[in-house]
């Protein structure tokens, strides 16, 4: 039996169709609603990205949160909208691209309630009572009965527009802190009318929405409810109330899309803190309470685990957001028995951060996501190249990705690295606490490369310029990475910290190569992401007395965007790490550090035997400079820098940089210009 047939039979259950009310999902792969950083502003980008998932075999592909009315405006965060006919036309483009591959299209109708500030629409936000918005210094208007009637009309009109746009599944969305969540909340909902008090009353509006939606579009569209399997915390909606509610409403939806109450801490948590399939127990409890199909998520990338979820009756559909971003072709690869080609999500939440920053989706593992329309990139297909040889120096994420794409394009590739094992920073960083899954960035690429006769790898060889020239390749890509600075220069110190001693000053590179300082260690975090906290965890667990110093107001402030900040700070506190926020490391004399308040300038000393400086990185571009000089006379297309040696940044940037250079090699004059998705004024 060949691999294809084996996989085909073992995983067949994942490919069985499933009836959802009036529609049928062609298989069990369900892309649940997830943010894309595109929303209503980038409709072509969105349609192409969602369409690509359908092409890759996802049987259901949903939108992100889709506003029903301008009183639910989440600017500056990119939300979808169904406010008018223009939105219908734009989202119809998405539905068409999803339908073109035989998949169902779903839309998550949404009203943000008090949560949203309506920065753009300038309408008052509405809530079950007047409450502050999540971030802005504004409060909502308490809804009276006429507001409730108006809200039901808006929802109904949006459901009609969803049907008009061609959607097959329409969501009612009472969770994640938005308007319907407020009504369900025991503490937020203080109403004395028929919408407040008992669970039946607090759920009245949800019931009415479900009935309205079913009556309006239920003959043509399945109705889904996205709901928390364990409630929203006892002060809002306890687990037993959530279970009662599912029983009370079970006749109305065609599908339950189940999440859990702790969004940042668990549902959306990174692999640093939460393993694959962590919601299982709570979902299984709810599954016993409903007669309707259930979908839920768990960062599933293992087909065996997926099959187990179906066979054990925990799920009817395998929900995925991140795994479908990392590999839009995950279902097709399982179907075709190409399991080793699955590009597994590493659970880093860089995708989530891009949405949070208002930029179109990006992903550490999948450099093509978000580029389907703008650059015409396909995650599985690359154009053939002109042929010839390419030398890549550096087998980190940039070099590995470039080698893979160039190999696929038919080039003869030599990938050299001075280290004895490939992977560069990925190999080193994946050994730090909680980052083991990051090794998937290396392993996915290595597995493919090892099967490519046109790619050879030379490890343990430091190349100098003479050797590179001698190699006489048609193209050279320099992917030599970056090193952490040893002098403290970074955001806070625009010059090196004066008079640092040679001993007792370490960088993340030293730690990753095995340095384990004991005693009193001060870690200076001017980077604000994961590196300093994971080093603090490593050293504290090894017994060092760690002080974590950062210039910002909280530990690892940027990791707020990946949803990790709170768990990071909690983890440091649990390990007994002393946290000094709004503080800079001013100097170190080998026995004590001088720390300074970033606001008042007040300075004080604290004993420390070692400092670890996590400030900024210096591109390792010596080889590139030796080859091209200070100012390359011609733009050096024959010799290019890629990845961290060009621009020290996230692993996602390095992969993207390697991918782009490899995809565009020899195609620089034919490559179509990148598209810009925007509305253009005609006729002026
Ligand atoms: P990126 O993130 O850009 O891919 P990394 O730092 O992960 O960069 O990887 C760079 C790799 O380049 C490291 O594995 C390093 O050992 C290798 N390297 C650096 N200089 C040389 C050189 N002169 N010859 C061969 N390999 C090198
Ligand atoms: Fe997964 Fe990270 Fe890609 Fe998001 S960015 S899909 S978490 S690999």
Can you walk through the features of this model?
With 684 residues, the protein is α/β, with parallel strands linked by helices. The chain is built from 23 helices and 28 strands. The chain has an eight-stranded parallel beta barrel, surrounded by five helices. A five-stranded parallel sheet has the order 16-15-14-17-28, sandwiched between helices. Strand 12, helix 11 and strand 13 (317-320) form a beta-alpha-beta unit. The site of iron/sulfur cluster (SF4) has 13 residues, from helix 12 and helix 14.
How many DSSP-defined strands? 28
Helical fraction = 25-40%
Q: Percent of residues in beta strands?
A: 15-25%
| Ligand list | adenosine-5'-diphosphate, iron/sulfur cluster
Low-confidence stretches at least 5 residues in length (pLDDT < 50)?
1-6
Biggest sheet architecture? 8 strands, parallel, barrel
How are the elements arranged and paired?
Blueprint lengths: L2 H8 L7 E3 L2 E3 L3 E3 L11 H13 L4 E8 L12 E2 L3 H15 L4 E7 L15 E2 L13 E2 L2 H21 L3 E4 L6 H6 L14 H4 L1 H14 L4 E7 L10 H11 L5 E5 L3 H5 L12 H8 L6 E3 L6 H9 L5 E4 L1 H5 L3 H6 L14 H7 L32 E5 L3 H12 L3 E6 L7 H5 L10 H11 L4 E5 L5 H7 L3 E4 L3 E3 L20 E2 L1 H5 L7 E6 L5 H11 L3 E6 L14 H10 L3 E3 L2 E6 L3 E6 L5 E5 L2 E5 L2 E3 L2 H7 L10 E3 L9 H14 L20
Parallel strand pairs: 3-4, 3-13, 4-5, 4-6, 6-9, 7-8, 9-10, 10-11, 11-12, 12-13, 14-15, 14-17, 15-16, 17-28, 19-26, 20-21, 20-26, 21-22
Antiparallel strand pairs: 1-2, 18-27, 23-24, 24-25
Helix pairs in contact: 2-3, 3-4, 4-7, 15-17, 15-23
The structure holds adenosine-5'-diphosphate (ADP) and iron/sulfur cluster.
């Amino acid at each position: 039996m060949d691999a294809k047939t084996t996989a085909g039979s073992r995983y067949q259950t994942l490919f069985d169709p499933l009836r959802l009310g009036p529609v049928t999902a062609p298989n069990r792969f369900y892309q649940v609603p997830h943010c894309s950083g595109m929303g209503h502003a980038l409709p072509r980008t969105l349609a192409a990205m969602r369409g690509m998932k359908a092409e890759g075999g996802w049987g259901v592909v949903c939108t992100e949160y889709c506003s029903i009315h301008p009183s639910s405006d989440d600017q500056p965060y990119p939300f979808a909208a169904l406010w008018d006919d223009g939105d219908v036309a734009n989202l119809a483009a998405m539905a068409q691209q999803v339908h073109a591959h035989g998949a169902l299209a779903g839309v998550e109708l949404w009203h943000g309630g008090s949560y949203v500030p309506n920065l753009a629409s300038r309408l008052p936000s509405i809530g079950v009572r007047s409450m502050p918005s999540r971030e802005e210094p504004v409060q909502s208007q308490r809804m009276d009965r006429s507001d409730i009637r108006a809200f039901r009309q808006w929802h109904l009109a949006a459901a009609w527009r969803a049907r008009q746009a061609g959607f097959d599944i329409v969501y009612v969305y009472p969770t994640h802190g938005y308007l319907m969540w407020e009504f369900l909340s025991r503490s937020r909902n203080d109403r004395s009318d028929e919408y407040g008090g008992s669970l039946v009353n607090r759920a009245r509006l949800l019931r009415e929405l479900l009935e309205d939606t079913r009556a309006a579009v239920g003959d043509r569209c399945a109705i889904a409810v996205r709901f928390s399997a364990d409630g929203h915390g006892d002060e809002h909606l306890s687990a037993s109330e959530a279970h009662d509610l599912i029983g009370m409403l079970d006749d109305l939806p065609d599908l339950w899309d189940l999440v859990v109450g702790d969004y940042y801490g668990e549902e959306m948590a990174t692999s640093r803190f939460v393993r694959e399939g962590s919601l299982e127990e709570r979902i299984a409890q709810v599954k016993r309470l409903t007669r309707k199909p259930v979908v839920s998520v768990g960062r599933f990338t293992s087909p065996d685990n997926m099959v187990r979820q179906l066979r054990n009756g925990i799920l009817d559909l395998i929900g995925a957001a991140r795994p479908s971003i990392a590999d839009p072709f995950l279902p097709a690869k399982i179907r075709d028995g190409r399991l080793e080609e699955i590009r597994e999500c590493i659970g880093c939440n860089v995708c989530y951060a891009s949405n949070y920053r208002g930029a179109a989706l990006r992903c550490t593992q999948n450099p093509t996501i978000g580029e389907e329309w703008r650059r015409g990139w396909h995650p599985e297909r690359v154009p053939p190249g002109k042929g010839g040889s390419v030398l890549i120096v550096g087998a980190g994420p940039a070099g590995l990705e470039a080698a893979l794409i160039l190999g696929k394009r038919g080039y003869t590739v030599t990938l050299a690295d001075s280290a004895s094992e490939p992977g560069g920073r990925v190999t080193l960083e994946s050994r730090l606490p909680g980052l083991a899954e990051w090794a998937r960035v290396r392993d996915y690429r290595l597995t493919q490369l090892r099967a490519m006769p046109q790619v050879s790898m030379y490890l343990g060889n430091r190349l100098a310029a003479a050797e590179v020239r001698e190699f006489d390749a048609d193209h050279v890509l320099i992917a030599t990475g970056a090193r952490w600075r040893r002098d403290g220069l970074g955001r806070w110190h625009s010059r090196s910290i004066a008079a640092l001693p040679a001993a007792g000053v370490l960088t993340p590179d030293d730690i990753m190569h095995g340095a384990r300082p004991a005693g009193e260690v001060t870690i200076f975090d001017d980077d604000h992401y994961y590196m300093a906290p994971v080093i603090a965890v490593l050293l504290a667990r090894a017994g060092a007395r760690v002080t974590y110093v950062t210039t910002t107001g909280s530990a690892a402030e940027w990791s707020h965007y990946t949803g990790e900040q709170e768990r990071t700070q909690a983890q440091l506190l649990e390990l007994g790490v002393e946290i000094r926020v709004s503080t800079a490391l001013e100097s170190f004399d080998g026995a004590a550090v001088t720390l300074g308040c970033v606001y008042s300038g007040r300075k004080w000393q604290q004993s420390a035997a070692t400092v670890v400086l996590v400030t900024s990185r210096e591109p390792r571009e010596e080889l590139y400079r030796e080859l091209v000089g200070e100012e390359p006379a011609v733009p050096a297309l024959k010799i290019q820098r890629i990845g961290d040696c060009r621009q020290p940044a996230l692993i996602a940037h390095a992969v993207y940089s390697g991918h782009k250079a490899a995809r565009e090699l020899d195609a620089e004059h034919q490559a179509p210009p990148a598209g810009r998705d925007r509305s253009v004024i005609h006729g002026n």
